[in-house]
Amino acid sequence: MDEPTQPVSGDGAAEQPFSCPECDRTVGRANVLTGDFTFEDVTPISSSPDGTPEFRETGLDDGPQKAIELRCDHCGAEFTLGVETNE
Question: Taking the model in full, what pTM does it have?
Fold first, then answer.
């Protein structure tokens, strides 16, 4: 798994957009209060056996504890979105 990228920081709102690092288009949103993610123009590559998008443990000591692999629906670039879980 590639080193996860950090979510895009925003304006302090609970719902923060994140973008494809290749084409810089907004492809989803993260709710920093609930930990919920909305994937709009991106396809999750990592998924559980039932097809549900799945965040996986990164094994990193310093950095995001979980990450999901994604493919941008605009340009086809694959990237990893990292998440701090504070666990």
Answer: 0.76
With the C-alpha atoms ordered 18, 61, 54, 43, is the resulting torsion angle positive or negative? positive
CA distance 80 to 51: 18
* Cβ neighbours around 41 below 10 Å, total: 14
Helix (H) or strand (E) holding 31: strand 26-31
Mind listing the pLDDT tens digit for each residue in 23-38? 999 999 999 888 889 9
In angstroms, the CA 43 to CA 78 distance is 9
Tokens in use for 67? 């990450």
Lowest mean pLDDT among 7-11, 20-24, 29-33: 7-11
